[in-house]
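User: Hey, my collaborator sent me this sequence without any context and asked if I could get a structure. I don't really work with proteins. Can you help?
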Amino acid sequence: MENTMNTAVKNDTFQIEPVLRKVLVDAEQDHQELQEMFQLMGWGDLPDKLKIEIKDDVSAMIEELRGQYSTCDSFVQKRRQSVTYWVSCYRDGICSLETAIQALKVRKL
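Assistant: No problem. I've predicted the 3D structure and written it out in structure-token form, which is a compact way to encode the shape of the chain:
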């Protein structure tokens, strides 16, 4: 009985390991792409906490710079202005990291 349980656990482990490896590889690739995006914006030196807060914004900015789409939406433009403003404030020492993060946090409805 005990041997059967060990075999079942080993079989489950072998089935899970490829999935975990894929998740790890995908996460590493996403992290590398994110770092490249921030480097393109000249924001590679930002703390990870701030990068996480604005990663979707930066990704969209890079896609637009690459010509993948263009937006004229005033709310999108205001959000981008807000992101660049608060990143500049943080980098210039005008505000703390926590203040910039709180200002850029997307509020849920």
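In plain terms: The chain is about 75% helix and 0% strand. You can pass these tokens on to your collaborator as they are.
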